[in-house]
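Hypothesis: this fold can be encoded by more than one sequence.
Test: take the structure tokens below, design a sequence, compare later.
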């Protein structure tokens, strides 16, 4: 995924009209879930494997309860050992020359008072109704740390693993004008027409039967951060960065808010060290060395440089 290209301020901001938005009403997100694998050292075992041989045959509806039922209710035998990673796999096949996976998105967006619909032809259109639209993503898996590691003993009990998906700010929409060129990255439909951009539809693996706690933050009014915790123990499961855009407003969060979160560890004194994991090796990871689980201000670092930021915890 290419780096964000911040927009320069126009000489007279009162005349700026930027036709883009994060106010996208998504009614369906179907992504391929090919396998779910528990892993630790030399130990590894599948908790789920899609029986189909193509991405299309492994599509799962993420915008609803179906995802939590994916692993079923029958227990899966896991060899004794210690496991510290859970992998969610998306690719039974490559699209083109590099591994990729394809999601199907259905929804609408309103820009300049007009409604645009996702269309099977591959773009947004002023003509409805909304149809499933294909969006391709590079990469084939997402890996979640299990902390503390899960120890399985011979003859032990049953541990429940469920998968969750958070749809907040998953998509942005824009019209094809020069002011929106910087928003067109991987995960977008062609910008020769009104286009849709979708953040990676990653799912979160959760151990246990209790639904997780999800905290949302808006950073520099241009990024959404989601943090997922165990509701009982407060252990951190994972999280994401997504773009947040407001129609007719310039967008410059100070970093490329794309990707997952590689680490979230407690500092002495109660703050946290939050590090971004970009989806592209070409992007620099943003580091928030003193993140707080409340609205706050601080300094983030990016390739040796420091920038101020403001994080607002959302309701």
């Amino acid at each position: 995924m290419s780096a964000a290209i911040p927009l320069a301020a126009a000489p007279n901001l009162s005349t700026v009209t930027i036709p883009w938005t994060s106010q996208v009403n998504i009614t369906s997100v179907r992504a391929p879930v090919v396998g779910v694998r528990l892993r630790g050292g030399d130990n590894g075992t599948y908790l789920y494997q899609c029986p189909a041989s193509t991405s299309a045959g492994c599509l799962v509806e993420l915008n609803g309860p179906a995802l939590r039922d994916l692993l079923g209710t029958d227990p899966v035998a896991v060899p004794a050992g210690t496991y510290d990673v859970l992998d969610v796999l998306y690719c039974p096949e490559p699209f083109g020359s590099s591994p990729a996976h394809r999601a199907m998105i259905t929804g609408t967006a309103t820009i300049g008072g007009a409604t645009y619909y996702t269309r099977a032809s591959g773009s947004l259109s002023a003509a409805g109704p909304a149809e499933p639209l294909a969006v391709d993503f590079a990469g084939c898996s997402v890996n979640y740390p299990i902390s503390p590691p899960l120890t399985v003993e011979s003859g032990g009990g049953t541990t429940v693993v469920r998968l969750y998906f958070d749809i907040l700010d998953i998509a942005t929409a824009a019209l094809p004008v020069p002011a929106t060129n910087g928003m067109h990255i991987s995960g977008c439909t062609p910008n020769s027409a009104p286009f849709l951009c979708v953040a990676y539809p990653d799912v979160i693996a959760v151990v246990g039967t209790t639904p997780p706690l999800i905290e949302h933050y808006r950073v520099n009014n241009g990024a959404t951060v989601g943090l997922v915790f165990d509701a009982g123990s407060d252990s951190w499961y994972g999280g994401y960065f997504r773009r947040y855009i407001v129609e007719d407003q310039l967008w410059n969060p100070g970093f490329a808010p794309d990707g997952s979160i590689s680490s979230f560890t407690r500092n002495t004194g109660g703050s946290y060290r939050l590090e971004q994991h970009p989806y592209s090796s070409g992007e620099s990871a943003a580091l928030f060395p003193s993140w707080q689980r409340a609205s706050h201000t601080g300094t983030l670092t990016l390739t040796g440089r420091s920038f101020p930021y403001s994080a607002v915890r959302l309701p």
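The radius of gyration is 20 Å. The mean pLDDT is 85.
Hypothesis status: open.
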